[in-house]
Write the structure tokens for this entry.
Amino acid sequence: MEYKTLTCDNPEPGILLVTINRPEVRNAINSTMMAEFLSLWQQIEQDSAANCVVITGAGSAFCAGADLKERSGITIETWNEHHAILERAMEAMIACPVPIIAAVNGPAFGGGLELVLASDSAYAAANATFALPEVKLGIIPGAMGTQNLPRACGTRRAKEICMTGEPFSAAEALEWGVVNRTCDPGSLLDEVLQVARSISANAPLAIRQLKRAIAAADDTDLMSGYRIEQEAYDRLIPTADREEGIRAFNEKRTPRFQGL
């Protein structure tokens, strides 16, 4: 995977590290980046080699939000064209069957915070800051922020964050449920990769079905969600990985999962 605004590495088998790589503009999102994110999520869905994806930012920022210089003076038609790509990219990110972890190494504003919220889990450097400042620009969050933020921190808190547009700290993000954990800035990526390593070591088909089942909890009633869980469970019974997991447990050894 070679892109202009994203750098993709495999620090170890099964883990894909994606670095937002526009440090000269604090990793601001432009139209090229969203097209590349769309391509990335589509490729990951087609390629089972990655068992976990980690997203972080180059330099001192995670992502400062939209590149407003690119948007200055463009026509409404061009604005809508750019946003259509963003919408498709965010939909593809949510649909990605592989777990996504955000390693928030610095400010995550606007679309940057929306990338964090669209991830399956998030870990933040203790000095990271967050905001959805769109109302200060005459718009509202447009990359699922109004949908994912209430699911993370509740409706009242989400209204406060979005309607004031004011920044909040990593400690507040942890308290409010926006991130899973805060870390020392120097150890952030190591801690996130350890989590990714733990996920990647498990049966990949089970992880994908688990992600699908848990996602249903936000969108369905209890029994409808349970039926989705049952369907996901049943899909795993005939797999070779299920047989390997049971066999390895009884033989007191580490299982060798193959995603089959």
